[in-house]
Automatic annotation (TrEMBL):
<feature type="transmembrane region" description="Helical">
    <location>
        <begin position="151"/>
        <end position="172"/>
    </location>
</feature>
<feature type="compositionally biased region" description="Acidic residues">
    <location>
        <begin position="50"/>
        <end position="62"/>
    </location>
</feature>
<feature type="transmembrane region" description="Helical">
    <location>
        <begin position="100"/>
        <end position="121"/>
    </location>
</feature>
<keyword id="KW-0472">Membrane</keyword>
<feature type="compositionally biased region" description="Basic and acidic residues">
    <location>
        <begin position="1"/>
        <end position="21"/>
    </location>
</feature>
<feature type="transmembrane region" description="Helical">
    <location>
        <begin position="184"/>
        <end position="202"/>
    </location>
</feature>
<feature type="region of interest" description="Disordered">
    <location>
        <begin position="1"/>
        <end position="62"/>
    </location>
</feature>
<feature type="transmembrane region" description="Helical">
    <location>
        <begin position="246"/>
        <end position="272"/>
    </location>
</feature>
<feature type="transmembrane region" description="Helical">
    <location>
        <begin position="128"/>
        <end position="145"/>
    </location>
</feature>
<keyword id="KW-0812">Transmembrane</keyword>
<protein>
    <recommendedName>
        <fullName>Phosphatidate cytidylyltransferase</fullName>
    </recommendedName>
</protein>
<feature type="transmembrane region" description="Helical">
    <location>
        <begin position="319"/>
        <end position="339"/>
    </location>
</feature>
<feature type="transmembrane region" description="Helical">
    <location>
        <begin position="208"/>
        <end position="234"/>
    </location>
</feature>
<keyword id="KW-1133">Transmembrane helix</keyword>
<feature type="transmembrane region" description="Helical">
    <location>
        <begin position="72"/>
        <end position="94"/>
    </location>
</feature>
Amino acid sequence: MHPSAPRDNDSWDDDVSREIARSAPGRSSSGFYAGAPEPASRIGSRAGEPAEEDEDEEFDEEIPVVPVRRQLSVAVAGFAGLLGIGLILGAQTSGPDARLSYAIVVFGVQLLYILAFTMAIRPPASGTVAGVCVAAAAAADYLAVTRESAGILPLLTVAAIGYLLAVVGQQLRSEDRLRFRDSLSGTLLIVVGVVSFAQLIVLTRKPVGTQAVLVCLTACAVAVLASHLIDAVFPKPRIAPQVPRGATGIIVGAMLGTLAAAVLGSVLVLPFTPAKGAVLGFIVAGIAELVDLAVNYSEAGRRMAGSPPTFWVARHMQGPLGAFALALPAAYVMTVFVLT
């Protein structure tokens, strides 16, 4: 066959090449031939529309928005203010011969803490845990008042022993042992928070401790009080749909707590200065706000999990009590290592 002759019988003419190209695996969107993964959107469209409709239905489900109850926010703010005033006045009126009265005030606050957190967290063997915490609170207060040298080491010992006794009490019944591991952190929070209030008595026995208690408790009370009052008026932007708190109140509350501590630092005598007061207030107010917000998140989690609600008074006392209790260790550390 000459080169110029027609190639009617050539198996590789243009028509056959096009047929081979049609039957070959097509290019993927990534620029490579078959074997490269296709985008999820194209795979879904090939698999059929029902899968996309199911995904759309899942994302279209609206998250229920918990409304902010203004009267409740004002009530929680009032409780935080009264709690701070009571602890501050008790610290200012205590002295070498009048520490017992302040210990009684602190013990009353500890009982409120035990009531609120035991009813909210509901650890296994709640009665045993509550009894151990009452005994730990009494022992911590007694040691804080009667020991010759004021220090935090006896309180740490009481907290460790109380936690061990609470854990042992949760092992007595088989139904309590089933939830033992899940409740370790909750039990620790209750015991440590109760013993933490005894640090107020220890601080009043230090040279600048009473002034430090004034600055720290004022910052904590102002922060929690202002945040809840702002939530009653302007609870926006919402932290989460399930949490009835606004970011504005939390941020402004922490700033006002820091400002109040700085003002007190400018009024009090040395070693207090506006800068030291601001640093002390910033740390304490920040911790208090975070703890208060964490309580709201935990309550929202229990509500979404379908847990039965606790007694409403105990439930709403949780935030301010936890804020004060867990901010006190930072106040003690700052007092010992910064002010003395």
